[in-house]
Structure formats: C-alpha cells, structure tokens
Design a protein that fits this description.
This protein is an alpha+beta fold. It folds into two domains: 2-193, no CATH class; 284-381, Histidine kinase-like ATPase, C-terminal domain (Heat Shock Protein 90), CATH 3.30.565.10. Helices cover 63% and strands 7% of the residues. Strands 1-2-3-5-4 form a five-stranded mixed sheet. Strand 1 (285-287), helix 11 (300-318) and strand 2 form a beta-alpha-beta unit. Helix 6 packs parallel to helix 8. It is rod-shaped.
Length: 400
C-alpha cells in the first residue's frame, strides 16, 4: 500500500512523472493568506535594485512605464501564485508559463541579475507535473543563457545562472519529497481504513458463525423440551434439555465476549461434542468421529469453524435425517442426505471460504445425487523443509 502510494505521488514510473502534483487541504500549496506577506521578503532583493535603476531614468517614456508594469506585475504574480493551486491543469500551466515569460522578459529588457528568473522557475516546480518542470524550466534557463550571450553578459553572469539552475533543481527534489510524504500520509490513512474494515469483517464473520450455531442449537433444544412436555409429559427430560439450553446460553455469552476481544479459540474436539448434541436434539442420525488425533493440530481451529457452520446449515435448512463427518490430516468432509439439490452460497459459506483462504485452503460445496450436500474443506500440507546436507568429518592428520 505504502509502495503504491509512493508511486502515485512520487517519481516511481512514467505515469507519475507526468501526473499532477498532489494537493492537500484547500488545494494544497503555500498558505494563501501568509504567502503574499512572505513573498515581499523574498522579492525585495530583486525589487530594490531594479526600482533604483528605473527611478534613475531621466524621463518617463512608454517603455519605462511598460518596464515598471513588468517588474511589479512579476512580483505580484509571484505573491499570489498559491491561488493557482486550486485551479485545473490548463490554468496552472498558463500561470507558470506566464511567470517564466515575465522573468525572461526582465532578463532581456534590463541588466537585472539572472536570479530574477528564479521566481518563475520556483512557481513552475510546484504547479506542474515533474516532467513538464524539467522541460519548461530547462527551456527557460537555456533561453536566459541565450539572451545573456546575445547581450554580451554571459561571461559576467554565467555563475549566477548556474546557481539559479542549482536552486531550481533543489526545489525540484524538495517538491518530489513533498509528494512522497503526502503519498505516505495517504497510504497510512488507507491502511488504517482497511484495518478497521478487516476488523469489522472479522467480527461480523465470527459473530455469524458463533451466534448462528448457538442460537440454532438453543432453538432445537428448546423445541425438543416443548415436544417432550406436550407429548409425554416427561418433566425430568424436559428439565435436562432446558438446563442444556441454559448452559449453551452461558457459553454463547462467554464466546461473544471472547470474540469481541479477539481472544476466542475454537477446538475441533469441542465442536464435535457440540455437533453431536445438537444433531441428537434435532433427531438427526449423526455419524461423527470420536477423536481428532489424525488432524494436524494447526488445522484443527479452522476445521472447527467449518464443522460448526456446516452443522448449523444442516439444522437450519437441510431437512436431513443423517449426517456423516469424516476427518483427515488436512481435510474435513460433512455429508448430509437432505433435500437440497443445489448449492446456494450465503454468508456462512463465504465466511468459511475467507477463513480457509487465509491459511491457503479451499472449500468446496456440492449437491449429492438424490439430494443433500457435501462440504469439503482442505488445507494443503506444508512442504517439508529441505534436509540439511550431511557432512562427514574426515580424520585429521591423514589417519585411516
């Protein structure tokens, strides 16, 4: 995530090289209220000598007026260039290009130091994509060198022009750093959002698996107690079933607390015991394993979830009279003889698919010929580590 964001906002590939600079709050860029004040401090070293030279003119001519307008128009444009951050690409390009043209005009029309061009190149660095910065600022510096060469000032000012190019390059990399930092900030926000979403999905999946099974079993046992009282009036057996309902309710509450705190652990053996009791209460013949020793220990919690959800589906929807569960070291099968003729994926199957995918496993549910479902969960066995090559120690000193 962080890597993709750095590519999005940095200089990682061709697409981002031509992409627009990142925009922060209110369009990004310098503060629109404070920057005009700060820009006065930045432009004074340029305005003071140029203003002195203009005031030294003997008379006011249209050319002098135009030069005054160019000098102070350039300063005002630099003071308000943050306003362009809110605009679309055409406006930003036009604004930056206008700054460069005014800077080149001042270099050509006056004997001003080439440092005056730095205001235009700096604005361009922060307004347009990196590739266009290289093209346009590079062209402006080359034109400034040509202007000074034609005016016979290149030999005296080429060092200053190199300094302008160096400062522009430094600001270019500073702009790239800002892009990278903003990209990382965005990546951190996305990671936090995904973490919250994943936790919500985990909690919803766990509560579905937990409450679905517990409430289904409680419903079955409560119904059994009611039928016992209605038909046979066997109060001791009904009381026993109600006690089991009470125990299941307490267990469900405890599991909910553990699920919310992410401390709940599922035991495959415990799920087998619970499945046996729930199926017996529903008067479904259950053919279940009596031990889980043949299942790899690291796979047992995941298979416990699968068994819980599969038995819950049998109790709710199948109308089955018989259920058979088989266990292997890396697989689990639940088969019923219900009335289902097709698989209808629901929240339970989707949740189980996600659980198994998290450990590299797969879940397959298929309809059996004649009715009923077969659910098979399988997790590939980890590949054994390559055995270390045995090294036979040779006797020292050439002894046989």
């Amino acid at each position: 995530m962080a890597e993709s964001a750095s590519h999005q906002f940095g200089l990682g590939n061709r697409e981002t090289w031509w992409a627009d600079p990142p925009r922060g709050r209110n369009g990004g860029g310098p503060d629109k209220m404070r920057w005009p004040i700060l820009s006065v401090l930045f432009t004074l070293p340029y305005l003071i000598p140029v203003t002195k030279s203009l005031l030294a003119e003997d008379r006011v001519t249209p050319g002098v007026v135009a030069l005054w307008a160019l000098v102070y128009g350039y300063a005002v444009a630099y003071a308000f260039f943050p306003q362009a951050f809110d605009r679309g690409r055409p406006v930003r390009f036009a604004y930056g290009a206008g700054m460069l043209v005014m800077g080149l005009g001042l270099v050509a029309a006056t004997s001003a130091n080439p440092f005056v061009l730095l205001y235009g190149t700096a604005a361009m660095v922060f307004l347009v994509p990196p590739a266009w910065v290289v093209i346009l600022d590079g062209a402006a510096l080359a034109l400034a060198a040509g202007i000074m060469l034609l005016a016979g000032r290149f030999g005296d000012n080429y060092g200053d022009l190199i300094t302008v190019a160096s400062v522009t390059l430094a600001m270019f990399f500073m702009s790239s750093l800002i892009r990278a930092v903003r990209g990382l900030e965005l990546a951190n926000k996305e990671i936090a959002t995904l973490a919250v979403a994943n936790e919500r999905e985990r909690l919803a999946r766990d509560l579905h698996d937990l409450l679905g099974h517990s409430l289904t079993t409680i419903t079955v046992k409560a119904g059994l107690a009611r039928r016992v009282l209605e038909s046979a009036g066997d109060i001791p057996r009904a009381v026993e079933e109600i006690r089991e309902v009470e125990s299941l309710t307490r267990s469900a509450l405890s599991d909910v607390r553990a699920t919310v705190s992410a401390n709940r652990q599922v035991s495959l053996s415990a799920e087998l015991v619970g499945a046996r009791a729930a199926l017996r209460a529903a008067e479904i013949d259950a053919d279940l394993p009596h031990a889980v020793d043949n299942v790899r220990p690291e796979f047992q919690p995941t298979f416990g979830y699968v068994l819980r959800e599969a038995v819950t589906n049998v109790l709710r929807h199948s109308g089955a009279k018989r259920v058979k569960v088989k266990l292997g070291d890396t697989w689990l099968e639940i088969e019923d003889d219900g009335t289902a003729t097709e698989v209808v994926p629901g929240n339970g199957l989707r949740g189980l698919t996600e659980r198994l995918a998290a450990v590299g496993g797969t879940l397959r549910a298929s309809a059996r010929p004649g009715g009923g479902l077969l659910v098979r969960a399988e997790i590939p066995q980890p590949e054994p580590r390559a055995a270390a090559t045995a090294v036979r120690a040779e006797p020292a000193g050439g002894l046989a």
